[in-house]
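Predict structure. Chain length: 218.
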Amino acid sequence: VTSGRLHAQGVVTVGDLAAIGSRGLEALLGRAAGRHLDALAHGRDPRRVEVGRRRRSVGAQRALGRAPVSAERTDAVLVGLVDRVTRRMRRAGRTGRTVVLRLRFADYTRATRSHTLAGPTAETDAILTAVRALAVTAAPLIAARGLTMLGVAVGNLDDGRGHQLTLPLRTDTADTLGHPLALDAAVDDVRERYGLSAVTRATLLGRDRGLEMPMLPD
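Prediction complete.
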């Protein structure tokens, strides 16, 4: 409801929120909510910062605009998001089991789809496969309601040092055995040395990958 009222007034950025001012927001949203949002828009937040807690999920999202989004572009955006998320996980030494796809539609409503893997991983292809499967299940909803934002997150995180194997034991997957992910690790090393654009997937060539915000250490 709050989001709808703000959008009806043309508020889409924090700057728009700050420009309305406390009185305008109080008239629009009520005294408590108006003052709270005005304070946050101006960087005033009395809540204590909690330290010493590792993040419980790693995620990234991308706004797509209001124009119709093709299935090809949707997949390319997902590839870029998964690549970004898994790179951050490996850098932090984390693995995860629960893969989440986040969607925002043209009417500003949101939906999520999730899948829990058999074991924790930070392997790009394993998580991308799960995300693509979730996107297939959400395709009818996307076609009916339009798509303005895509997000990918991995939760149920572990420290990546080891995990309980599942039966039957397999010998054809390095991730199942807990071995280093050689291909992902090699790509990570090249990007650390020469920049993120040094190695990329063919499907992302020539595409705008969006802004990647700097992150604090995990």
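Summary: Residues 173-178 have pLDDT under 50 and may be disordered.
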